[in-house]
Amino acid sequence: MDNSLIFAEAAQDVYLLGTLGFRAVQTLDWTHADVQAQFCHKAKGRDCLFLVCSEEGGHEMTRMAGGKLWETAKSIRFLHLERYCSLSDAARREGNEGVAALLALVAASDGWIESEEAGAWYATAKVEVPRAAPGHSAADILNMDLAPIEYLVADILPTTGLALLTGAPKRGKSWLALLLALRVAGGAPFLGRETKRTGVLYFALEDGYRRLKARLLKLLDGQAPPAGLRLDIEADRSDAGLFDKIKLCTEKEPDTGLIIIDTLQKIRGSRTSSNEYANDYAEIGKIKGFADGQGICILLIHHNRKMRGADDVFEMISGTNAILGAADTALLIEREEDSDSAILHITGRDAPEQALCMDFRKENCEWRVTGSAAERIERRKRAEYEANPLVQLIRRLTAQNNARWEGTSSDLIAAGEGVDMSPEKLTSKLAKLDADLLRFDGIQHARGTGSTTDKRKHVFTRTCLYIPIQLS
User: Fold this and answer.
1) Closest CA to 369 of 163, 153, 168, 200
2) Taking all residues of the chain, what is their mean pLDDT, rounded to a whole number?
3) How many Å is the Cα radius of gyration of the chain?
4) At what angle do helices 96-108 and 87-94 cross, to 10 degrees?
5) Which of 172, 209, 274, 354 is the most buried (most CB within 10 A)?
């Protein structure tokens, strides 16, 4: 039964099956969506056998469980224990050898084993499990009893899934990642947030043990290292042994819950398509699927582009948008060259959107949070707005034309210097500027009405007096 998976209702049955050499899991409460997802993943591609005791409630739970696995399991069969409430109960009467012989008979059978012996303690009459329509009703979802999200780092890093930590080269990503590893392995606060203590495996693939030792000594500052932190400087690619190595660690060290890979580029597999987006999504999605299946968190360290995205800071992440799209959580370090200050931007499916100001303490190479970055981001956005040549042009035109100017995109381009772009691109940029123009300058932007020619025009109207500000 190499490819089989046995579902048993009683915990003692799972233990008994394990001692007999069978792979088994306990059939838990299948009304929970997270339980369903966990066992659907375990059953994928396997021959599943459900042990059904004589209790009617157990029958119903097993029917439900079997029905959920139709789309993932290779095959599903049911073994009914006619006289006993558990397999362990049967073993006490029939002996372990009798139980093992029965299961071997089930494994060797292509179909259902029919017992003609009147006194048989088992039967395998087939139970028809109707395939349900895909998905769940909205009412069912609202009635689900779902466990709350757990975090390795409160409101930043969930316990399960795939996360990214990105930043420009030589901006302190690895220092922050190693600090995270130390804090989580020791159960100590990280960036002022509580952590859930768990084992950590850190793949420092761009370092040697000499550099790792120096960094550990710096961050530990005389303290003993946490027992739950393991470090390695070698790993195979994602398509050539990486997952096997992680599985080995989680088997030998079951407490391991966080895997840090520094960097993503070091474990990337072979390209399977000429489409870069498809390649990125397939590979990152594969790593995420593995993390979800193992119930662990994998943090990938990755690089940013040199230029900041015009509208979204996460556009700085190197590669296609598929890398961010496939991840559950992303942490991005935005740090100017030669500056000890940075902003840590955080976004994710289960983490609240936030931005934290951090300082890098050179004396021990530790990142520390100094507060929310909202004010700093707002000041930077205002400075970028003030320096925008398009904003300056619109201000000048409305000032020169009694607080109102109208014209096409081509007219606007021709009216000033520094606005060198196509009419289509200008129209797109204006749409993004609308809110700030009204907020900072009291200038309302609208499109013309009436004829087709008029509809191509932009109309700018100042609704209040503009007072220049000084940005310190």
Assistant:
1) 153
2) 82
3) 30
4) 120
5) 172
In a domain, 44, yes or no: yes
Q: Tell me which of 65-69, 136-140, 415-419 is least confident.
A: 65-69
For residue 347, which of 339, 358, 337, 355 has the smallest C-alpha distance? Answer: 355
SS3 256: strand
- pLDDT tens column, 258-314: 999 999 999 998 887 788 898 898 899 999 999 998 999 999 999 998 766 556 888
| Residues 353 and 424 occupy one common structural domain | no
Question: Residue 153 to residues 19, 150, 203, 458: CA-CA distances in angstroms?
Answer: 38, 9, 19, 49
Range of the domain at 395: 388-462
User: Which pLDDT belongs to residue 106?
Assistant: 60
Q: Which two tokens stand for residue 251?
A: 């088997």
Using the structure block, give the residue that is written with the tokens 């021959």: 47
Q: Is 47 helix (H, G, I), strand (E, B) or coil?
A: strand
Label residue 155 left, alpha or beta by phi (over 0 means left) and psi (-120 to 50 means alpha). Answer: left
CA neighbor of 259 nearest in space, from 315, 301, 217, 308: 301
Is the distance from CB of 456 to CB of 410 less than 8 angstroms? no
Taking every pair of Cα atoms in the chain, the longest distance, rounded to a whole number of angstroms, is 103
β-pair partners for 81: 122
Return d(Cα 49, Cα 78) in angstroms, integer. 6
Q: Are 124 and 77 in contact (CB under 8 A)?
A: yes
Residue 124 has pLDDT above 50, yes or no: no
13: CATH: 3.40.1360.10
Cβ atoms within 10 A of the Cβ of 200, count?
28
Cα 35 to Cα 226: distance, rounded to the nearest angstrom: 32
Distance, first Cα to last Cα, the chain: 73
The DSSP bridge pattern shows strands 256-262 and 199-204 to be parallel
Q: Does the pLDDT value for residue 185 go beyond 70?
A: yes
CA distance 367 to 333: 11
